[in-house]
Amino acid sequence: MTTGEPAVAVAGLVKRFGDVTAVQGIDFTVASGEIFGFLGPNGAGKSTTISMLCTLLRPTAGTAQVAGHDVLRERDDVRRNIGLVFQDPTLDGYLSGEQNLRFHAELYGVPRAAVADRMRQVLEMVGLWERRRDKVQTYSGGMKRRLEIARGLLHSPRVLFLDEPTVGLDPQTRASIWDYIRQLQAAEQITIFMTTHYMEEAEFCDRIAIMDSGRIVALDTPEALKASVGKDRVQLHTDDAEAAIAALKERFDLDAAVREGAVTFAVPGGEEFVPRLFAELGMPIRSVSVARPSLDDVFMSYTGTTIRDAEGSSRDWMRMAARGRA
Ligand SMILES: Nc1ncnc2c1ncn2[C@@H]1O[C@H](COP(=O)(O)OP(=O)(O)OP(=O)(O)O)[C@@H](O)[C@H]1O
């Protein structure tokens, strides 16, 4: 659900580091209440952009407003209105969940009278109220991540920045973190700005921006992005992959490659193409499969790389954020 003025509004945003232009004049808005995913290969400029939005880096040119406040002129207002959930754990293991949150409440100046109620609210939301008095070092990985999310929410931010909120967690815990994220969006009308390398998670986002070489190369809903690729992925098995690749080029002018052990190529109207393939390829085919484009295909078509190759991370900005806050 989205309402009112944008949670994030960026216009002509540029960041140069000496000769390197990390962000080359980008424009986008994120609606209030939206779950917005930010994807891109290493060095694309994601961390630099997010650092500017979180007021940790000054833009070279352009403007950005977060929660209605300008990142340069109203830095403190921006900071009060955002929550950050770091990739690297920054909880104190020797303290209880409750003590960790209390410390954060003081840091953010949450009014004393409001702290107890708010702590209960966020701890219940992430299912940790019963465990609040236990030391954090006795929590599982998923519980720690949930506590970090609760902490990021404690001061009632309008925009929550999450850096790969589920990386390194087992599938069941990942699913439960996503349940919390969705509940949170519904209960608090919060805007979520997240990075992820899991394409199946990018599917949960209302919209996705793909960044490459300092520019936003695609921005839309997952469905629209997949439709924009316009081609299906066809995979076939033959006794001679090299010969099949050469025949696909010669007879259909298609560029194929071996991926996941199968001869793979993209073609519009994949299902209609299959009968022609059998009729005209000129060699025996053992099996064929056709798939609609996935977000992996979207990522590949806009950036020329796979998300797995691009892995390895947008984590640094969170480390920087941790240092900036320290
Ligand atoms: N402090 C800095 N000084 C000089 N160059 C920088 C600095 N920070 C980033 N860059 C450069 O800016 C470009 C964008 O980097 P950025 O970290 O924003 O990319 P990213 O998309 O977040 O990548 P990753 O996924 O690897 O974190 C890169 O060429 C990087 O080397």
Automatic annotation (TrEMBL):
Superkingdom of origin organism: Bacteria
Membrane topology: Peripheral membrane protein
Presence of keyword Manganese: no
Localization (cell): Cell membrane
InterPro entries from the UniProt entry: AAA+_ATPase, ABC_transporter-like_ATP-bd, ABC_transporter-like_CS, DrrA, DrrA1/2-like_C, P-loop_NTPase
Keywords: Antibiotic resistance, ATP-binding, Cell membrane, Membrane, Nucleotide-binding, Translocase, Transport
Protein name: ABC-2 type transport system ATP-binding protein
